[in-house]
Amino acid sequence: MKEKLKITSFLGAGTEFEGNLRSSGSFRIDCHFEGNISAKGSLIVGKNALIKSDIHAFSVMVYGEIHGNIFADHRVDILASGNVFGEIQTSIMTMDEGAILKGTVQMSKEKPENKSLLDVSASGKNIDISKQSLGMINGIVMGGSLQMNDNINGVLALEEEREKCNLVENAKIVAVCGSSLKKMALTDSSGHYQVTDLEDGIWKLKVESEGYEAGEAMVEISGGGVYEQNFV
Question: Does the global pTM surpass 0.85?
Fold first, then answer.
């Protein structure tokens, strides 16, 4: 089984947050956020995200739009759909064709990774996401010449395959754990899905859609959190 990226916290699309955010694990934002962000792990800025904030993180992957400065100890990756308006300071920098950067880039030596507690301040209210006891699996289902029997787990590989494949709407995802736990979900018009309220354990995912071969994957949930599993 290939290594999965465990996203310990997630701010979903359709919401707006304003305040200060601190995270020790991998964190994904797909919403409108204003304030300050300090992520001691990795930060993924989703394609639908609009962030007006200075960002301090170990690494940053940008699919959406950022208005503010990025200070990354390790690396910054701006994908084809990403837009950054501000200064970038990091050790490693990549930028895909089609991405937009209006600002300056300063390269520096890599800093050691630190750990901190998770705290989100949204509209003046503190939210402790780290205490979530149940897990969630989300991702994208794509179909094309490769069919859906191959799994894409790397973020950069996912962006490359997305350009070659179709986003599959109304694909059915069935998640089973043991003999009694079963969850189902359907992909939306952009090929995204979410399977929520998952107890700790090894979950077997099966995705099916008319005209495509079925795909399967195994995801181990441990201590709640958000996990990403994509299919192509």
Answer: no
